[in-house]
């Protein structure tokens, strides 16, 4: 046995841990080819002998209940919580273990406050907890030849509503202002939202969701600028029950809005979007998969962050083949401009399209064309911040689900467009391309892009690259320029390096 590595990705972890109050949960079972018949699983637990641990989350390796392997195995194992969702280890312990059937290894522990609050961005990027287990024969060198990736996905639903505050430039500190809801993505839920301006010029959001079948929910708030870009400006940490007030601070300052009214307060109106993730009273769907032979580091980039229910989770878990006839028909419909009823206008060109296709592929376009926003009645959707070629490529993807001849700058521009119009599949393809082509010479460029778009996954990937390649990056001319122009991001990268770089 040369070595074995198992990585377990637990998606929507904070929801499960709060709902079940720390109840134990096992990973999908896995096998090691070098140990025929033996079956293994990783276990997270919050109780010991029936008593709940107030401060810690425990992790151990177990032999499964049904196990046809040897009665006793002597193995060298290492189990660890990973931070940043990839390869940086926060807590790791290596044990020499005599494994009998149904035995468990010694446990490692992470502080609950670190995981769920203080170091949440590191432990739970996009609410995904990542765990790694390594196994070797006694005294053998560390050689990772066999690998597997296990996934546990707790299904939750998502909905959003768009609202406005009239005369937002005249808000009074200390008073609460009701957000007038213009549209919502569901008619099942009842939303209410107020914004409070503090004496220090900061905003706080208070959101309540009413629905008799809701168990728990979280929320995040985005603000719309005059270029039709949604900018994340705050999100809750804790899950709330139906009817409870979900309150959290927003990062945008009143002074910032007033200093750039044309961007954030056109005609004195502030437009906000709130996205709510929630579960119902029913037991949430749990999707479990196990894949062998993967490059673990690349496989951990797999995401299901846009999953809205169990059906879509299952569709992501399998590769679906598009119907050739449907695809060719849509391409013909687009190329022939048959029955087009929408126009997308850049500074130099006008593109014809179909509202039905735009709405089906982009929730932003759907909101534009189905709510009381001006695009519903205007002849043309103005897109002054996108180049002609970017809009052309974006439309080609919306109709064909393919990207052709992608280059670095094209991918960056398309990523921007995909984020703006919430075309998540396009954003993921662009992100994957950018990650695959990440180099020392362009990592500063990509770090800035990820930070501008609040993309925690992409930002973490770039920071990991900087930590691993440290001297090559820190001594490069690109980094020297980057430090002068972006001090905060450079400091964040240095902090990451000094904290984890020598682990």
Automatic annotation (TrEMBL):
SUPFAM superfamilies: POZ domain, TRAF domain-like. Residues 340-407 form the BTB domain. This is Speckle-type POZ protein B.
